Structures are given as structure tokens and as C-alpha cells.
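[audit] Reproducing an earlier prediction to check determinism. Same input, same settings, fresh worker. If the C-alpha cells differ from the archived copy the diff job will pick it up downstream; this log only records the rerun itself.
[audit] input (432 residues):
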Amino acid sequence: MTILVKVGKLGKRVLRKVLPAPAVCLSYTRRIERIQTTRRICAMTFDDGPMDLPASPDRFGGRALTDVLLDILAKYGARGTFDIVGDTSENYPDEAGATGSPAWGGIRYDHYPDIHKDDHGGAVHNDRLIRRLLEEGHQLTNHGYRHVIFGKKPFVYGKRVFLGSYDKAVEDLERLHGLLRDEYGYTMTMGRPPHYVDKVGGGFSSYDVYNRLGYQYMAASFDGGGWLPSSNQDPEAALEAEVKAMVEPLRAALEKDPDFFRGQIIFQKDGYNMARRTPVAFALDRQLALLREYGYQVVPVEELMAESPFADLGREDLDFACFQALQAERAVVYSDNRLRPDQAMTQGELAMLLAPREEALGRRVSMLRAGKKAHPYAGALAWCAQQGLLAADAGPDAPLTALPEGLFAPVEHFTRRNVYRAYLGAGTRAQE
């Protein structure tokens, strides 16, 4: 099964190269993989914790794995982003799959840190660890209360129970969100779907779910490794191979390009891999030592986004402050977190600029609930048509050729940059 997973990952990489890039639309929720910056800063994310069981093998005197990771981060003055779960103890009846397979911890559900050891994992059972994470300045993000996948994932997880509806996915995330808010006064602002399953059902996706909670979609641009087990049958050799698989790709990337990790998000695990080992406990120190050697600072993802919220535009752009302010209020950035500022604007994009958030999102959700197909801009277009700002037959991809009178400074060329400048009253500068 491990070979199957590796083949699947390779197949995805090949398909990305040969198939057209997936369509993107303006979205309040964007997939954050990396940001544009000239500084050597990056983020490390740790999924599936916290857990109070020791590392495997335990060479830290019985200390909880999450404590071990926090100790190492503190040694380097680094702060991480922990993508936590709530409690997986409700995910029964179930049985474990084969060790070394994706179903190692459960055939029908995930169980963290392991099957029948659910009371050692998640926020519900680890008040001390949650408090330590917050006291030491780490970011917490929402990986699902029960870590149940949102929709079907036939490849690898074909036997898995899935939530399968927008309302169930929202309910699961709100349960963990409310726990952190009520017990710790902490508001989560980002999430990562369990196993990156985005399709929910009924025309909804994880982006709709995160829109409801006001989240950004926290993805990653570099796999820190450690979750795939080595095929070596000797435990010591297997562990060393897994540690090497976490350290050497990072080293090679830095040696090839010392600026490689600027603005990047690195994926890790706060838990066991498929062979119930924790190579992260032994590799993290080496990873952080390498990053320090090259002058990097490891910060939470939210601090990366404070540096720049965009993947294709940084502080050196003359309009950075304009775009930064606008994206906090309106959907002006594409779902892949790119602005594409000098691209021609469409009528649907103008609708997303003009329609209030609750109208753009709420109307579309209502359309989908009614069983209608709804373009991501459908709610905004309907509101703009009702207000007389756009024609009733305005199309989401139709080119923009005119602006509503009285709302904008004069615009000569309808690029996204120029329209946003005019919307904020910047007037016309040199037109590209």
C-alpha cells in the first residue's frame, strides 16, 4: 500500500505538468501555499496533534511528542503552526488496517494518535499542551474536530466514512473552533481539510466551508516528509532512512538556491507515521539547524501573511498597501492566492468587488441548497443586477467594458490594477 501511495503522489506530479492548470476564481478563502517576500522567512506546520504519548522510539525520557517538538522549536527561537484536531474518540466502531498502510490507524476513520488511544490526542484531551502552544506563541489552525474527510476519496481512502455535506463539514469545524474560543479565548483563522479532500458534495467545496467560518485555506509548498514509512525491515535503519528523507531534500534545496524557502510553508506531522514511528522528533532539530545556517526565521503562517498576503506580489509593489487593504474587505484575490493585477478584469470580478461579502456568499449558498448550479460569482452577480450596477445577463467571464457611474475615478484600461486603484479613489496613474 505504501508503494501505491508513492505511485499516486508521482502520478499527481506528472498530471500537474501535462494537464491544464485548474480554473481559479476570486475567492474570500484562498489556498495559501507560499507568499511573496524578499526576506528569508518561512513557516512550519504540524498536523494531527497535539498528542501526549512519547516519541517512537522514545529517546526523550518519556516526554510527550508535542513537548519534544516544542522544546526543539524553542531551542531555535522558531514558532510553528499546529493544525490540530479536537477528539477522534467518537470514530468507532472501527478496526486498524495494516501497519505501513494509510489505514494503519483505522479503516473507516482516522484515530489520533492511534486507534484505541484517542484519549491521548487532540485538543479535548490535552489542555496542558494547548496552553503551552499558546503561551509560547505558536499558531493553532483547524484540522477538523474528528478529522473526518469532507467528501469521497476513492483512491487510497475508498472505505472511509466521509461527511458528505456542507452543513456537516461546517458543524464539525465549528465544534473545534468554538472549543478554542470558549476555553482559551483563541480565534482560529485558518484550516486544512483532512487529507486535503476539497469536494464536499452538492456543488460545495472546502472553500465554501471555510468561507462560512472566515478562514483561509492553509496548504503547503514543501513536504517536510516523515509521514511515509521506510520499506527497510530493520527498525533502526528504517528510522534513519525516514529522518534522512526529511533532512536531505531540505538541504539539497538550500544548496541549490539559498533563497528557496523564502515565504514557503513546510508540511510536517505532530504524530506517528504509517509505521508508528516519529522521525519528526529526530529530524526537526537538523532541519531547523539548516534553516538557521542559511539565515532563515521560522514564523507562524499568520506572520507570513502579515508580510504579504499574496503569492505573486510583495511589499516592493507600489500598490501593495492598496491591495492589502482591499483584500481584507473584498474578494479581490484568486483562490490560488494570486492577484494577477495586470490582467483584464471581467464582469464577474467586478461583481465580487462591489457585492457585500454576506450577499455574494449567502446568495450562492442558497442557490446550491436549492439544487441549482452556481458559479462562484453567481451570488455577487445577482446582487449587482438587483442593485442596477450590472446588467441582469452579465456573465462571470465576460470582459469588462464600462464601470457603474459615480463609484469610480476615471479608468482608461480595465486591468484589475487600474479598476482597484479607481475603486479606492486612487485615480489614474500611468496606464500600463
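[audit] rerun output stored. Observation attached for the diff report: Residues 313-423 form one domain.
[audit] end
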